[in-house]
Write a structure and sequence with these properties.
Blueprint lengths: L1 H25 L4 E10 L9 E9 L2 E7 L7 E2 L8 E15 L1 E4 L2 E18 L5 E21 L2 E8 L2 E10 L1
Parallel strand pairs: 4-8
Antiparallel strand pairs: 1-2, 1-10, 2-3, 3-5, 5-7, 6-7, 7-8, 8-9, 9-10
């Protein structure tokens, strides 16, 4: 257990020094955090095509994560049974990385690339309601965001191959 604590300390140290190196390399571009909504063009059945979006900007680097957080009815199990049937739902997760390119004062263009992971939801109503998820594939995507910064706040809109539209708001810390 002591090795695990040492590993966490080492990872925390690397993370802190990485952020300080970015600050030194890129000056006062800052660290930004935001959230918003992302809409997918994927056929997700009865699940919502809209998902919650979180984004981070550290220096000139950008990362965002989105998901529709779809679930089945009942308790989640990590296995199926012979009574499991496919629900008409799909969960999707998207993770993208990009690079912030300042175009004009307070205007930032961010090309990005990433993956979307799909999971079919299966349900088992026998005895008590349960569900589990099975991988349905991975898709590569490319896209772009546009950000308008107003003081320490930014508004963003974007699009990619599977996330057809996203928008959000964030702040520079």
């Amino acid at each position: 257990m002591k090795t695990f604590s040492s590993l966490k300390f080492i990872l925390l140290f690397i993370l802190i020094t990485s952020f300080s190196n970015l600050k030194a390399q890129f000056g006062d571009i800052g660290f930004g955090i935001g959230m918003g909504v992302s809409f997918t063009s994927l056929d997700v059945g009865d699940a919502s095509p809209a998902g919650l979006l979180f984004d981070l900007d550290f220096g000139a680097f950008h990362m965002d994560v989105a998901s529709n957080f779809a679930t089945g009815q009942g308790e989640y199990l990590e296995f199926s049974s012979s009574y499991t049937s496919k629900a008409n739902k799909q969960k999707w997760y998207a993770i993208n990385g990009g690079y912030n390119l300042p175009v004009k004062n307070w205007f930032i263009f961010t090309p990005k690339a990433g993956v979307v992971v799909l999971a079919d939801i299966w349900e088992d109503p026998i005895a008590w309601d349960t569900y589990y998820e099975e991988s349905a594939g991975t898709k590569f995507q490319v896209g772009a965001d546009i950000k308008k910064q107003i003081n320490q706040v930014y508004i963003k809109a974007g699009s990619s191959m599977t996330e057809v539209f996203s928008f959000g708001i964030g702040m520079i810390l």
